[in-house]
Amino acid sequence: MLFDTQEPPIVISIGGSLLVTRDGIDTKFLSQLNAFIRKYIKRGKRFFLVAGGGVTARDYRDAGKTVIGTMSDEDLDWIGIHATRLNAHMIRTIFEDIAHPRIIENYDKKLRNWKEPVVVGAGWKPGWSTDYDAVVLARDYGANLIINLSNIDWVYDKDPRKHKDAKAIEKLTWGELEKIVGTEWSPGINAPFDPIAAQLARKLRLTVIVANGENFRNLERIIEGDSFKGTVIMPYKISASFYDREYYMGDKAGYRFTQRNSFIGKFLTSIATYYRALIIRIFLKPKNCLDVGCGTGNLVKTLRTFGIDAYGVEISEHALKLADKSVRPFLKEADIVKLPFKENEFDLVLTFDVLEHMERGKIKKAIDETIRVSRKYIMHKIYTKENLWIRWLYSKDYSHLSIFTAKFWRRKFLEHPDAVLQRNSIFRLPSFMESIFLLKKK
Fold it and tell me: Do the beta carbons of residue 100 and residue 66 sit within 8 Å?
């Protein structure tokens, strides 16, 4: 069994309500889970699957309370933990041929150089749920995606079973979630995400997607980077308003040692822009091109001096206001997922450091749009995990929502039905410097 050891694993926290219902063990769900995981393992994915306790835990807790009237929180938690371990053993048995033989029950004991594409986890200690364990796995093994599966489609502003006017929430920050679920844990708490786990995820600045585990087509869309139904919980709200004047001047995210508006910062930026324009002019020779996510329009301006009929689109009105007056007529405010152009309108459509800013659910649409409006070439320069120099010179950019390996993006482009990934059609710097993907439209 082959899987990509460089691509980060995906952590899936499986709510116990999906595994065991009032009617017994849900073998239909388990069969679908089995097929789903094996499908993506064949595509090089690897998974941590963390089992919840669900009905089994609640039944045992209720039985104990019925007999003795009351139980300590620690005893209640231990009953829940053992229920998760029973469910975890069931899951590991289903994936026995491809799963690591040890179920993770002590998260301090790290796995070293494991070869199996599936690892199963269960409850650990009293004081939190398996949501917390999933966050610990993401921290310790570099996962960039946690999917929390339960029997709800969304996180709501209040309990929808008690309040008919409860509203579904598509996106919220950890701070906003805290106002809904609080900060304290109690055994059997009914919350979309464990409050203790939420505090750790907030500290680690992780992103978690809460979705309905019974909808496997929707789960596919999450992994594929397509639009999906579910709530995204993130460290910050990243929207057009995030990319304000301070962002483009380098005060929010820029060079670690030199701000973008300093002399050295401006010099380095101008050198990079000229280099990019020169590569495009020499190797691709487009008559016209579109720079998607053009920022302040510096590349568009340089391309036009090279005789290329260049245009740009940018989601941030602040960036457009900072653009040089001479290039503003060729820039337009627009979103990459809905480009205001016809099909096959440009010889070249390009993005520089844009796709890593996309939410996972918008990646596929963004790629589709850049291919749609191109008639020949599509070039994406993307910040990937291999680009070590960015970590050395740049400060933390919290708008980087999708930092993946180059292999993740390469697979995305290779699988696209309307374009072919080119191998040696353009000069590329070493991978520790940049990751460039050139596609040719079919």
Answer: no
Q: What is the pTM of this model?
A: 0.84
**Residue 136 to residue 134: CA distance in whole angstroms:** 5
Helix, strand and coil in the chain, % to nearest 5: 40, 20, 40
CA-nearest of 86, 61, 57 to 71 is 61
3-state secondary structure of 99: strand
| Domain region containing 18 | 10-234
Q: Which of 81, 62, 76, 78 lies closest to 121, judged by CA?
A: 81
Q: Cβ contacts of residue 172 below 8 Å, gap of 6+? A: 155, 231, 232, 233, 234
Q: Answer whether residue 360 is part of any domain.
A: yes
Same-domain pairing of 181 and 311: no
Beta bridge partner(s), residue 377: 348, 440
**How is 349-414 classified by DSSP, letter by letter?**
EEEES-GGGS-GGGHHHHHHHHHHTEEEEEEEEE--TT-HHHHHHB---TT------HHHHHHHHH
**pLDDT confidence of 252, banded at 50, 70, 90?**
low
Identify whether 239 is part of a domain: no
Q: Calculate the alpha carbon distances from 278 to 186, 222, 274, 275, 355 in Å.
A: 61, 37, 6, 5, 22
pLDDT over 60 at 257, yes or no: no
Residues facing 276 on adjacent strands: none
Q: Which residue has the tokens 């600045």?
A: 205
Nearest to 45 by CA among 89, 1, 87, 95: 1
Radius of gyration of the chain (CA): 24
pLDDT single digits (tens) 344-367: 999 999 999 999 999 889 999 999
CA 77 to chain centre: 31
Domain boundary among 234, 258, 276: 234
Residue listed under structure tokens 């939410």: 359
